[in-house]
Structures are given as C-alpha cells and as structure tokens.
Write a structure and sequence with these properties.
CATH class of the largest domain: Alpha Beta
Number of helices: 6
Number of strands: 3
Strand content: 5-15%
Shape: globular
Largest sheet: 3 strands, mixed
CATH topology of the largest domain: Phosphatidylinositol Transfer Protein Sec14p
Distance between the termini: 14 Å
Order of helices and strands: HHHEEHEHH
CATH architecture of the largest domain: 3-Layer(aba) Sandwich
Number of domains: 2
Low-confidence stretches: none
Helix content: 25-40%
Length: 189
C-alpha cells in the first residue's frame, strides 16, 4: 500500500483515539507501528507472491461496503491453520488490513477509518486453533458475539443484506480478498 494511506490525518487521529487522546502515548504507539510496518512491508506494501500459501486457504473475503459505507471483511476461522511461517501470516494480516482500508477509499490517498469484520467460528476444530492468530486479530477489534437468531437479525439489519453473503443471511456471494480488484491498489509488475 502507498505510504499516503498511513501518514494522513485520519491515521494519526486513529492512534490518538486508541490512546485516549494522549499525544505522548499515541506517538509511541505510532512509532512502534511504523517499525512493525517496515518489518512486514519494507517496500510499503505486501507483495501477493509472499503470501500465496495464505491465499490458498480462501479464508478471507472482502465484500461490498456495509449499508453505512464501511468495508466488510469475513474471516472463516475453520479454514485457518496455525502457520509454520509466522512472518508470512503477519504479512497476510497486514495485506488484509491494507486492502480493506483501501477498499473504503473513495479515491487514492485515503481509506475508511472503520471496518466491519465478521470472524466466522462455525465448524472450528482443534486443528484450527491458533492462539497467536486469534490474539493478533482480536487485539484490533471490538468483539460482538452473534449466537442467536435475534442477534443475527440485528447483524443483518446493521450491515445490510446487499453486503452480507447468503451464508450469513444476505444476498451477496463471498468474494475472496485476493480476487477483489481496486483501481488504487498496487499491482504486481
């Protein structure tokens, strides 16, 4: 992803909010995050060839925006297995976040501050348990558990049928994140 997605006012405000508007704490968090970004994507973006094994699982889906215009990602945990290569998995997570943010951009140079992530835990087995993977995912999310029909109806109402795939009560088809084409997304030369 281009660095312009990360040095804008929205990004800096996100770090301030995460640290209760404390400039000192937000600055430290931002510096730590920038260091992490350099380790994960030294060129500014994750090359899809570096995470091909993660794509093969077809576990992450990028849908059309919610009815409020926020990017929607669906992760099927039953298709995730603890990675042998932790760096590749971290790169996959960075790729997912980058592409999801970019999908919320109206034009090159910005992305949606908010995204909706559904982590589907149906059919999850012991073979799918990956404590590190769950920790990485849950540390960034505000978690709402949908476990009954009333909550599912509320989820459909909040997100919108047009964005939700049929398997989740909507009208859309699942779209693997690697198959989503964005006009302002870096392409491999």
């Amino acid at each position: 992803m281009q660095s312009s997605y990360y040095g804008d006012d929205e990004t800096l405000l996100r770090f301030l909010r995460a640290k209760s508007m404390s400039p000192e704490k937000a600055a430290k968090m931002f510096a730590d995050w920038e260091k992490w970004r350099v380790e994960i994507a030294p060129s500014g973006s994750v090359d899809e060839t570096e995470i091909a094994a993660e794509f093969e699982a077809r576990k992450a889906y990028l849908q059309r925006p919610t009815k409020d215009g926020h990017p929607l990602v669906i992760l099927q945990a039953c298709k995730h297995f603890a990675p042998k290569d932790q760096l590749q998995f971290k790169k996959f997570v960075a790729y997912m976040l980058d592409k999801t943010i970019a999908s919320g951009a109206k034009e090159e140079g910005g992305g949606s501050e908010k995204m909706v992530v559904i982590i589907d835990l149906q059919h999850l087995g012991l073979k799918n348990l990956d404590a590190n993977g769950f920790l990485i995912g849950f540390q960034y999310l505000q978690v709402v558990i949908v476990n009954n029909d009333a909550q599912k109806k509320e989820m459909i109402k909040e997100i919108g049928e047009e964005a939700l795939p049929e398997d989740y009560g909507g009208l859309a088809q699942l779209t693997p994140i690697q198959d989503v084409k964005l006009s302002h997304w870096p392409t491999k030369n």
